[in-house]
Design a protein that fits this description.
Helix content: 10-25%
Mean pLDDT: 85
Structural class: alpha+beta
Strand content: over 45%
Order of helices and strands: HEEEEEH
Radius of gyration: 12 Å
Shape: globular
Number of strands: 5
Length: 70
């Protein structure tokens, strides 16, 4: 997850967050150094701190959308 979040040149962020229990959950899509296509879900705690909720391999639709953005 960290590799995706710091790889700004290979990062695509969703336009709007999902709301889960009153908390905004953002998704970003990116590629790790090993070439894994990951979706990372996180919430913003402060201006400089994020909390990763989960990270998982992109499904086919997410990968297609990510590759369109590159």
């Amino acid at each position: 997850a960290e590799q995706v979040l710091v790889s700004i040149d290979q990062l695509y962020a969703g336009d709007t967050p999902d709301m889960v229990n009153g908390e905004e959950r953002w998704k970003v899509y990116g590629v790790t150094n090993d070439g894994r296509f990951l979706t990372v879900v996180f919430t913003v705690i402060t201006e400089t701190y994020l909390r990763v909720v989960t990270a998982y391999d992109m499904d086919a639709a997410e990968r297609h959308e990510f590759l369109k953005q590159e």
